[in-house]
Amino acid sequence: MFSRARNFNVGGNIQIDSSQHVHNTQEKSIDGMGIRCSSTHFPADHVPYVAKGWKMLLKNIASNAFYNSGARFDPPKCDEDTRVEVISEVMDWIGDREGPKRLLCMTGAAGAGKSALQQTIAERCANSGILGCAIFFSSQDPTRNNLSCIIPTIAFQLGKHDPRLRDYIKEAVEEDPLIFTKTILTQMDTLVVRPFKQLQTNAGFDTGSFPHAVLIDGLDECAGEERQAELLSTIKHCLLDNDLPFRIFIASRPEWAIRSALNSETEGYLHPLAYHIQLSDKYDATDDIRRYLWWRLQGIGRRSHDPRARSQSWPSVQDIEKLVRAASGQFVYAATIVKYVSERRSSPVDRLQTVVDWTPEAGQLARPFEVLDMLYASILSAAKESYEAVDTNRGRNFLLLLRAHHINREGLVGGRFWDAQEFDEILNLERNAHEVLVSDLHSLVVFHPDPGFSQIFIQMHFYHRSFSEFLDSETRSKNLFITETPVKAYVSEGLVQVINQVSLEPSSTRATFGTLSRENPVVALALYSNGGETLSTQQILALAHNDGWRKFDQMLSKTGHFALYEKELPVMLFFMMQRLKNELEEPGLADALKPYYNKWRKLVKNCREADGYEDGDLFSRLLPEEPEEGETKEGKEPQELSNS
Q1: How far apart are CA 431 and CA 423, in angstroms?
Q2: Rounded distance between C-alpha atoms, residue 605 and residue 58, angstroms
Q3: Confidence at residue 499, expressed as pLDDT on a 0 to 100 scale
Q4: Could you write out the three-class secondary structure of 152-194?
Q5: Which of 130, 415, 509, 625 shows its CA 20 to 30 Å from the CA of 143?
Q6: 250 and 302 together in one domain
Q7: Is residue 189 part of a domain?
Q8: How many independent structural domains does the chain possess?
Q9: Which of 314, 359, 360, 276 is nearest to 101 (CA)?
Q10: Greater confidence, 556 or 159?
């Protein structure tokens, strides 16, 4: 420790002389460590001395979180000539020390390449001598999936850059040995802010020369939303409010903590302070993914023993383009494919063909997307647990509701889909329930307006097309899979409740539906009940005893518009009429339904024929007109329907 020291005194009793020997004129412990020095001489190069405070700090750091930790062997990073634009933007921001915003937050979908970008930025900063510290969270590593060691780890990395700062941190620990048990706000103030301010008071200290890049990756992988928010708040109050000369770069999935802090509409406290890069929205990674796949697959081919893989025609342009489309701009998909194809015990040609031709058939042994599916399952399971733990959501099935919105988005029922807010009402849920549903899934799915519609139309949007396929495949989603059958039953039950709550008073109709178009509950019920086939006895009787037929007619007629091509409506009315008459022995209720059935059967049939559909005759044979009592087959409609 004192190998280059000459003729000076430490604390009055320990003296270093020109022979590089330590003399202790009295028996005395050094820095309270209990290491005692007598008059015995020993070379200064071998002094058994480690500052107590620094030693305590070392016991409380998460070394696995370093950018170059062995625990993160072969970490993801950007290939050459990929992500050039975003890397340049981040490096320019870090280098602009006079820039007004000292916090950069990058949010992006799961697998968008945030960690690879952070690793690349960390290595470039380290090579340039400007890396102050880097923290890489990981949900799978108990030493770096919480906040217990994060502040000491930051302090340790910063302290390594200046011995004076290291001494101030050491002294702070010795003055408060219990600092590691206190809040991270207190830890940050004690171990980082105050020591650094002490360093700045030193004559000749050049703030501009101190490594200033502070990188934090994977905030979303820190366990607990509240803890994530606590770290963001601590960074704001300690590092930003104290005007310390650091440029702080945080990368995270767009989960609640960082999303709410950056939200401009709700005046999030970081919004005016942070430069926000929305990676998945701002940067199209399609070209980068194409280059990545070409480079990596050709490299695998050159090293392969299969001559087909070494051919210049492998991989084919068609296969690469199919993979690029499937990736949907997310690097995790491409990286999963590369890892699967690189298996050395098999031919890369055969394994790539497996990926290109793969379909989620039951019993299929190949699982090229296993790593990707584990990511989806982990995020989905955590979101399910969080959603169902909220008291107002108890009794609701998260997976069922998510699958219902998914089926609606894909138009899997009758080719029809509804605006997300309307679909909430179809499900008999509160307004904006869809936003609450996916609040922990923003790294995979989000709701936003569809630009293809003239009016605001909110739709579910998947960052990964593969995640939509995951939800559709029992082979991939396993115990998280929900078939269409329970979804249809759930939606039908909600629609029956909605219709039964409708008032026939004209003044109350608009208030009853809110944003929901009046015809939608009836049309949706016809579609989701398979033309009435899956409606239960209780549901049919509930509709019959609650003026359901009149409500159907009023809801459809008063809109001035009806999707007249939906033949499922008269099919549903006919099915219910037959059930009432034959199965439930309610001929009176069946007779009351006849005029409504005949009216809508005729309207739908005529409209289909007028627009050139060729199923008019078939439609008539499938759904015969029902003569009413005392009338011919061409009998007139009831008076109350004549104005429609």
Answers
A1: 10
A2: 80
A3: 87
A4: HHHHHHHHCCCHHHHHHHHHHHHHCCCHHHCCHHHHHHHHHHH
A5: 130
A6: no
A7: yes
A8: 5
A9: 276
A10: 159
Own/partner contacts of 529-534, CB < 8 Å, gap of 24 or more, are 529/488, 529/492, 529/572, 530/488, 531/568, 531/571, 531/572, 531/575, 532/571, 532/572, 532/573, 532/574, 532/575, 532/576, 532/579, 533/575, 534/488, 534/489, 534/492
642/260 Cα distance (integer angstroms):
54
Length, in residues, of the chain: 644
Amino acid type, 529? S
DSSP, collapsed to helix, strand or coil, labels residue 24 as strand
Instruction: With a cut of 60, say whether residue 345 has pLDDT above it.
Output: yes
For residue 206, is pLDDT > 60? yes
Integer Cα distance of 88 and 363 in angstroms? 47
563 backbone φψ class: left, alpha, beta (φ>0; ψ -120 to 50): beta
Encoding tokens for residue 60? 């409380």
Pairing of strands 131-136, 103-107: unpaired
In one-letter notation, the amino acid at residue 279 is L
pLDDT 10s digits, 436-493 = 999 999 999 999 887 767 667 898 999 888 899 999 999 899 999 999 999 999 999 9
Query: Could you read off the pLDDT of 140-155 as tens digits, one per residue?
Result: 999 999 999 999 999 9
339 belongs to a structural domain: yes
Tell me the mean pLDDT in the region 242-256: 95
Asked if residue 56 belongs to a domain, the reply is: no
Which run of H or of E encompasses 374?
Answer: helix 370-389
**Strand, helix or coil for residue 229:** helix
**Residue 381 domain-assigned?**
no
> What DSSP designation does 50 have?
-
Residue 514 pLDDT greater than 60, yes or no: no
Measured distance CA(555)–CA(340) in Å, rounded: 54
Separation between Cα atoms, residue 591 and residue 576, nearest integer Å:
11
- Are residue 474 and residue 619 in the same domain, yes or no? no
Which two three-digit tokens encode residue 12?
């009055």
436 and 397 in one domain? yes
CA–CA dist 480, 459 (Å, integer):
23
**In three state form, how does the secondary structure of 193-228 look?**
HHHHHHHHCCCCCCHHHCCCEEEEECHHHCCCHHHH
DSSP string over 310-362: TSTT-S-HHHHHHHHHHHTT-HHHHHHHHHHHT-TTS-HHHHHHHHHH----T
- What is the spatial order of strands in the sheet that 8-10 belongs to? 8-10, 14-16, 22-24
Say yes or no: 255 and 342 in one domain: no
